[in-house]
């Protein structure tokens, strides 16, 4: 004890001073030192957050020029402008659909990663879109949703599946000559005059198709010989490139149209049918009635399936939400995976021992234990969804941007996209802030409750 006292005296301090609290009744550095370290962050926060919010609130009370005080007129315009109502409607769709879908997909992915051997690689692939900016993601999905199947991935997949299930029409856009005696009717093009078996061949000239679009097996058109108890004829492209030909007559350079389906009608019923050969000729044998009607089936001329108009007025919002899910699914998966790792395995094993199926374990044990994490993910996504701008601006074409409009895009559009009414734009910004604040308060309270537990 003496030695300790000597050490304290040697340092010029009393022993009690080593553990004595400060004058404010607490240990540690003085409060002003903490304020000094916080000052740069507070200045940054005030300059880049508080001041813009305050100035936007003040600017929203003035007109477009900023010279005339209009009070709350800009806020009245928000709730009377049809464009704002469209944006508000779309925001409601986003808030209801996008967070739920992203959370559900993230939950499914998180559960899958616990059951597959290549979980790490799977997580990397799913999370990778988070490393891409919304602008780049918008450009990617603008190409994915292209209407032309040769450029748009989505329609390329759909058309490939459609062509696999049902073969495409061989001659889309082809039509008969006006003087060919064929008229459009239900089921295709029907010949006006009835045809008797054994008479001269039926000539069916078509136009409206470039010669280069004929199948590679197409051969020069010929006229078949008449056959007893049969109807014969030729279907050909009545067009001679670079030369003058005779309409309705098979010229030497004109080729037949193979794989054309020809139907023979007895009344309204199809009695028989045939398919043209490489030279365009067809034969329908074993006909017993006196006369028949010849028809070129409608499926010879139907336009091929070109996919879905993803960026049209009807589907543009769901299409953009699909892009949003692609970007944020990895974020949800990572957070939910962390929550899954914290679940006691004993609870899951106990449920399985009691006879619960995997679906019952998932629905009644896993999901309830994950509910705090799922709620955090959902609220976080809802905050981001309320401020969605980039994807809508990049993906939606100009002619349908009004149909895909959201509040953040409407704020930019009226402020800088033409009207340059920054008073109304500031009012929209404040309105959007008011919508976001409740979700932020809820999120902060959740974090504080979790820290207190």
Automatic annotation (TrEMBL):
Keywords: Cell membrane, Membrane, Transmembrane, Transmembrane helix, Transport
Protein name, as recorded: ABC transporter permease subunit
Alphabetical list of PANTHER family matching this protein: BLL4140 PROTEIN (PTHR43227), DIACETYLCHITOBIOSE UPTAKE SYSTEM PERMEASE PROTEIN DASB (PTHR43227:SF8)
Main localization category: membrane
Domain ABC transmembrane type-1: 88-443
UniProt similarity note: Belongs to the binding-protein-dependent transport system permease family.
TM stretches of this protein: 32-53, 92-112, 124-145, 323-344, 365-386, 424-444
Pfam families: BPD_transp_1
Topological type in the membrane: Multi-pass membrane protein
CDD domains, A to Z: TM_PBP2
Localisation: Cell membrane
Organism listed in the record: Lipingzhangella rawalii
Segments of this protein annotated with the region Disordered: 1-21, 165-188
